[in-house]
Amino acid sequence: MPVQPMELGEFNFAGDDRVVPFQVEGLDVRGRAVQIGPLLNTILSRHDYPPEVARLLAEAIVLTALIGTSLKFEGKFIVQTKSDGPVDLLVADFSTPENIRAYARFDEEALARAIAAGETAPHQLLGNGTLALTIDQGAYMQPYQGIVPLDGSSLEEIAGVYFRQSEQIPTQVRLGVAELFDRDEQGKPRHGWRAGGLIAQFLPDAPERMGQPDLHGGDGDTGASTFDEDDSWSEARALVQTIDADELTDPLIGVERLLFRLFHERGARVFPPLPVYDRCSCSRDRIKGVLQGFSESEIEASLEDGEVAVTCEFCSTTYRYTAEEVREG
Ligand SMILES: [Zn+2]
């Protein structure tokens, strides 16, 4: 793949909804960064989620774009939370080569109570539960799933823990979401969303440099760590932590300017961007296939005016079938 060395004043901005892979040779870091605009607005406005829910789902969508675009094979990457809070389910999935879809499930009354009580931090809205990251390579391969507890940390922290535990790769993830209120060309008030994120991973040629101190409470936790982290990774981690949430979403900064600010002294390079699109994988045939597993009494119970109507939770498309279509197989 051709690389583009980063020179100040020569940025070729990838723009929104395009994931930019990058490499920092001097620190043995590889990563990806993205700003998401139109794709996010299409998904969130289709569902008309309350802002508290939209913000959570936006983070999951950014994480999905950052990780999904690293898949080297045909398949799916899925980010899913399951928990006991007002927002009990978030799902975002990426299908190779470039398609993203997402939805959230929430209890309206519980959400209203949480908002009234001012309890709208992510861990208060999600409650206790798990975050699962799944890689699915199709029917003939065993899916791979890593599960980490939602323990009150932010999604970016939980994602970092996942990579550390499951992949043994030192990883820093940053996610940011911004709600925008501005005016369109006619001066009418306009509301929208932007989100952005960056993942940085330490991948030195000598794997022994990737060693990490044990996680607190993990296997071999002696209570006192004498482990020295590799200097390159310490530096990269510290740089990534200096990112403001605003920098992740500001279109005037763009991911290229952000990467330049963070890493130019260490030789940052960017690779050609990978576009992502709001596209669902549902189809009339695929949903019919699911209905054909229904028993006669289930079909009877689902009939309304002689039809079975199914709405895709991801894209809100409604498919209608006659009872005969469902029965015929
Ligand atoms: Zn769909």
Q: Keywords, please?
A:
single chain, 329 residues, seven-stranded antiparallel beta sheet, globular, 31% strand, alpha+beta, binds zinc ion
Question: Can you give me a brief rundown of this structure?
Answer:
By secondary structure, the protein is an alpha+beta fold.
Can you describe this structure?
There is one protein chain. With 329 residues, this protein is an alpha+beta fold. Helices cover 31% and strands 31% of the residues. It has eleven helices and 15 strands. The chain has helices at residues 38-47, 51-68, 108-116, 122-126, 155-167, 231-241, 245-249, 254-263, 284-291, 296-302, 323-328, and strands spanning 4-5, 18-24, 29-36, 76-83, 87-95, 99-106, 129-136, 144-150, 171-183, 189-202, 268-270, 274-275, 277-278, 307-311, 318-322. The strands form three sheets. Strands 1, 2, 3, 9, 10, 11 and 12 form a seven-stranded antiparallel β-sheet that branches. It has a six-stranded mixed β-sheet with strand order 8-7-4-5-6-13. The N and C termini lie far apart (47 Å). The mean pLDDT is 89. Zinc ion binds at residues 280, 282, 312, 314-315, 317. Zinc ion (ZN) binds at residues 280, 282, 312, 314-315, 317.
